[in-house]
């Protein structure tokens, strides 16, 4: 019996389970999913959980209830690629014949002193819960500083401005215009929304140090009742510790079939994988589809298929509950239509996975 292990029940791991169970998994393969939590978390909605506009239950989806699926709960501390073993915090181990590593990402602090100790995060559901508790327990007219004006920072700032309009929200960005990766039209639309809704944008920021309730921008001290860090990500520590080739961002270099070079039994998925596009739930799902194709061929003793480039449909972001922005087929969209599309896609995802 072959042992197939998936590390991480994120978007990619869930898509693999969908494609393999109940009928596509060969009879001589047993499948084990490893995760710390007893449910899949909708990471793209953590900003709303932290802002207090949705409940914890809203971002949880149950893992598939399939008799052929084994689930092991635990915290991974190390992967022994030489001996095909996964090591856990409780000193237990799990062996595998084929392995998919989809352990997600962590905040990247860019060596800013004090940032890990004195800022809040929305990278995990636990961290988002803690951020929610802090933000929603702030007194009236408290100051919240959000470092990083990418998609996560923008969505958190806009949602929090609706949830707690009494707060003073400052959004710090390194660039001259927020969302610099998007067309200028979208950046200007979002910037205007923030101005109209009282969110202060601090452009060309350079955070040099963080202390308790203090943020230093170009060494200028700025008081904050709470500081949330959304200024970059890096692969999980377990992946960073792997002795394999990585790109400058610390993501694992892969073959065209998504496995580690010279090891066709170990695949890397999602935020930990070096791919041509920026990490996203959509990209992880596309990669998962292709890894399933490769595995099914290899399990049959066949050569894996030639894989095409993963095509992304676009990206959607929210500005509170009524407005949004995005790119679909390279075309910018803004306003209520963008927000409705995002809400509709979320409903469809939960409907098909719940």
Automatic annotation (TrEMBL):
Which cofactors, by name?
FAD
Tell me which Gene3D superfamilies the record gives: 3.50.50.100
> Pfam families, per this entry?
Pyr_redox_2
Q: Which keywords label this protein?
A: FAD, Flavoprotein, Oxidoreductase
GO molecular function, one example?
A: NAD(P)H dehydrogenase (quinone) activity
Q: For this UniProt entry, which residues form the secretion signal?
A: none
Which superkingdom? Answer: Bacteria
Q: Does the keyword Flavoprotein apply?
A: yes
What does the sequence similarity comment in the record state about its family?
Belongs to the NADH dehydrogenase family.
* Protein name per UniProt: NADH dehydrogenase
